[in-house]
């Protein structure tokens, strides 16, 4: 299968840069898969999970919202944040999720509720990515 260059960039770092066979992203209207030779595209990305399939590996990243640009032989993902499972501290995420749940239960001002909802989504996503790594799924499953 053909490959293409994928770059995942945040304001702080280049989270990923390598040749891949496929990437699946959380587009604003649902999941979007990109293969080599995809038509040029520019679209919004939602906060969610990115699945990257390399030559002999498959892995996941938790991303913040951003943009995807597909060009001839290169795909660039520009997002507010990107973390792979190795960068996630499970205990910190569990505590953050618990605090968010408590804030959601307590209610309060609209701004505080929106912040708690965002924190809850990010913590849930981080745990999902962490547990996918632990499951050790082979590439072909």
TrEMBL record:
<protein>
    <recommendedName>
        <fullName>ATP synthase epsilon chain</fullName>
    </recommendedName>
</protein>
<comment type="function">
    <text>Produces ATP from ADP in the presence of a proton gradient across the membrane.</text>
</comment>
<keyword id="KW-0066">ATP synthesis</keyword>
<comment type="similarity">
    <text>Belongs to the ATPase epsilon chain family.</text>
</comment>
<feature type="domain" description="ATP synthase epsilon subunit C-terminal">
    <location>
        <begin position="86"/>
        <end position="128"/>
    </location>
</feature>
<keyword id="KW-0813">Transport</keyword>
<dbReference type="InterPro" id="IPR001469">
    <property type="entry name" value="ATP_synth_F1_dsu/esu"/>
</dbReference>
<dbReference type="GO" id="GO:0005886">
    <property type="term" value="C:plasma membrane"/>
</dbReference>
<dbReference type="InterPro" id="IPR020547">
    <property type="entry name" value="ATP_synth_F1_esu_C"/>
</dbReference>
<keyword id="KW-0406">Ion transport</keyword>
<keyword id="KW-0375">Hydrogen ion transport</keyword>
<comment type="subunit">
    <text>F-type ATPases have 2 components, CF(1) - the catalytic core - and CF(0) - the membrane proton channel. CF(1) has five subunits: alpha(3), beta(3), gamma(1), delta(1), epsilon(1). CF(0) has three main subunits: a, b and c.</text>
</comment>
<dbReference type="GO" id="GO:0045259">
    <property type="term" value="C:proton-transporting ATP synthase complex"/>
</dbReference>
<dbReference type="InterPro" id="IPR020546">
    <property type="entry name" value="ATP_synth_F1_dsu/esu_N"/>
</dbReference>
<dbReference type="GO" id="GO:0046933">
    <property type="term" value="F:proton-transporting ATP synthase activity, rotational mechanism"/>
</dbReference>
<dbReference type="GO" id="GO:0005524">
    <property type="term" value="F:ATP binding"/>
</dbReference>
<keyword id="KW-0472">Membrane</keyword>
<keyword id="KW-0139">CF(1)</keyword>
<dbReference type="InterPro" id="IPR036794">
    <property type="entry name" value="ATP_F1_dsu/esu_C_sf"/>
</dbReference>
<dbReference type="Pfam" id="PF00401">
    <property type="entry name" value="ATP-synt_DE"/>
</dbReference>
<dbReference type="Pfam" id="PF02823">
    <property type="entry name" value="ATP-synt_DE_N"/>
</dbReference>
<dbReference type="InterPro" id="IPR036771">
    <property type="entry name" value="ATPsynth_dsu/esu_N"/>
</dbReference>
<keyword id="KW-1003">Cell membrane</keyword>
<feature type="domain" description="ATP synthase F1 complex delta/epsilon subunit N-terminal">
    <location>
        <begin position="4"/>
        <end position="82"/>
    </location>
</feature>
